[in-house]
């Protein structure tokens, strides 16, 4: 049962939408309670008569917050709010942060507390705000997010036999069983073209991903694999944030 009243809980905004004339419903990722929704009364509009910003102006994406709420139902009412810091993102890195927010919004159930999830989210935002390799950071976030939610990929071992994958092997992804080894008739163009096949992945890439590292030459494979793996849990409705990347 959700706590009726919680004080000073670390949280980040995932999504907000208008509610009635001047209020908002805000979905938060919290440290101890997972994804929750709160009503923020009087959040919209100009600054107050004393010149202070309305609380809605503090509830922006990528801002670290301390929040307090109360309420008997699943939808809580925000009591107090303190903004600790804002992680600035722009351009393609802003789109990447919005993509991560939408993933969490879609994959998490309300009040589903997940150990280490908030730390993973903060790790992502801090790396997005730096000069680190964007594609590598996103793939590692997706991989570790699936792990934390119990949807992790069985990396490192072949389906059926359970044998350890080999660096020079190729594997076909089966969502129900894992990665089946693929045997080629020869060492000609079939092997050379394997990396371009939508559902064939090199053992070297899979083993590296299991160890949270991805070389540049494997980023394309890793992107294809993670899109397949994440998509299994999203349903048929497309991610709106991906349209931002297409327009960039």
Describe the structure.
There is one protein chain. The chain has 248 residues and is of the alpha+beta class. It has helices at 55-58, 91-107, 117-128, 134-148, 189-194, 203-210, 219-231, 241-247; strands at 5-19, 23-30, 34-40, 63-70, 75-86, 170-174, 178-182, 200-202. Strands 1-2-3-5-4 form a 5-stranded mixed beta barrel. A 3-stranded antiparallel β-sheet has the order 7-6-8. The longest helix is centred in the middle third of the chain and has 17 residues, at 91-107. It is elongated. 25% of the residues are buried.
Question: Could you give a quick summary of the protein structure above?
Answer:
33% of the residues lie in helices and 25% in strands. The protein is α+β, with helices and mostly antiparallel strands and 248 residues long.
> What would CATH call the architecture of the domain at 5-86?
Beta Barrel
Determine the structural class based on helices, strands and strand pairing.
Answer: alpha+beta
- Give me the number of helical elements: 8
Query: Helix proportion of residues, in percent?
Result: 25-40%
Termini separation comes to: 43 Å
